[in-house]
Design a protein that fits this description.
Layout (H helix, E strand, L loop, with lengths): L7 E3 L2 H9 L3 E8 L2 E11 L4 E5 L3 H8 L2 E9 L3 E13 L3 H8 L13 E16 L8
Antiparallel strand pairs: 1-7, 2-3, 2-5, 3-4, 4-7, 5-6, 6-7
Amino acid sequence: MQSVDSPVEYLTEEECWQLLRGQTLGRIATSAGGVVDIFPINYYADGSSILFRTAPGDKLAELTINEKVVFEVDGYTDTVAWSVIAKGTAQALDRQPEIDEAEALPLRPWIPTMKSEYVRITPHTLSGRRFERGPEPQWF
């Protein structure tokens, strides 16, 4: 809970999903073999999960070793900034009905590369904060 004078507001889960649905670019953090990586991804949020496409490579390999991920997206205006963090599991879609459903979504690669794998992040926790932007307070 925040104080009345605090420039930080803690968001509800619904507010977090609303912000996630309003963006398309975020970052996914993975960990495998003691190495932590972070990758930018474009994504689609449906209100209960986060879907992205990828190609075979480090990101997909790390997800097969350790499905636990952290996903983050943020944004700002002149007066406010916000950040949403989703912690959960990521699994590549492997059943054709799931893949067909994913292909019908408005999720296309941003760069001209083949991204044939669909991955769904299912959050176990979702948290967010909104920040009032302004000048630094006086120290004295």
